Amino acid sequence: MEQVGLIDKIIKSAGQINTGRRLLDTDGFEREGRINYRKGLALAKDSFNEAQFSADSDLMTLILSELAFLTQELQFCDLSDTQTASSLKQAIQSFDDAILALQAVESDAYRIVDLAYPHHKNYRYKDMPKDSFHIACNAHRTRVGNILRSPGINMAEKALLMRRQSNLTTAQAVYLKKQNAALI
To answer: What is the value of pTM for the model shown?
Structure first.
């Protein structure tokens, strides 16, 4: 699928999930809330599956999908929930930086990154520079993992979270291939 269509589905899914959550908490609208919530989760999972499937040929779309979902979560975040908003803002900034790293690794200039990064194991990911792409994936995988451990999350939402976590592992593997190609 084209990038714009997939991102549109991600945005729509986040909206449905949010609407579902709000309606679930509104007397008389619980059924509509459950329907919206489940439809949103299903659409998001399908969309993230699609993004992962085409990651080898279009890694940018996979990253933009996660970024779009995070942006929507921030938009729907309650203003009084400052901890969640702060975490989402940090994740969005990390993915903005990861996009820049992805653009760099696909250019001829990436060799300079290898020279500039320390060769100590703390600054390497499988012998490649642990740049902002790897940092974003690792941090967000941890963030999603923490959400997965929260009690009370239903299995449908956990399945979506596990898909997103898997997508980050795929993204990092594809990015590693790009780094190897750029540096060899």
So the answer is: 0.92
